[in-house]
Amino acid sequence: MSALPLVKYGQPILRKVLENVDDFDSIQNLVPDMFDTMYEEEGIGLSANQIGVDLNLMVIDISHTDEPHPPAAFVNGRIVERSGTSSMEEGCLSVPGVQVNVTRAESLRFAYQDLDGNSQEKDFDGLMARVIQHEMDHLTGRLIIDHASMVDKHRIRKQLKELSAG
Ligand SMILES: [Zn+2]
Prior knowledge:
- The chain is of the alpha+beta class.
- Helix content is 24%, strand content 26%.
- Zinc ion is lined by residues 92-94, 134, 138.
């Protein structure tokens, strides 16, 4: 297991709709690396394209927050139902230094496969629902900056320019 370099804003893979996972054997070694990378960067969620891998795969660990939930890996995730709305400032490991107010569903029903390929469907709310939506954005090529208001877009314009310059 080892932490991998993080893909930052400006790299095309962050703007791609990622491929579904068919070969579950191929992700068994990848998932521990994703957790390690997330911990190294002190994040609470990570999608596969953030380490340069084109697969619909995310890891989340909010177990140290006041909304404890065991660490989880979700494969081929799909949000099947959303309800309520909540707004919160979000950051993203791939867009360092940028905070954007993002309005998301308060709760959701999430269909996914576990690491053995078994289909699951569960309800999530609060922080877990928020992180799932953040990572689902990644898996469909979206970033927090796409949720930014006009005022926020103006505010972060310079930071983004510097980030994409590398
Ligand atoms: Zn992110």
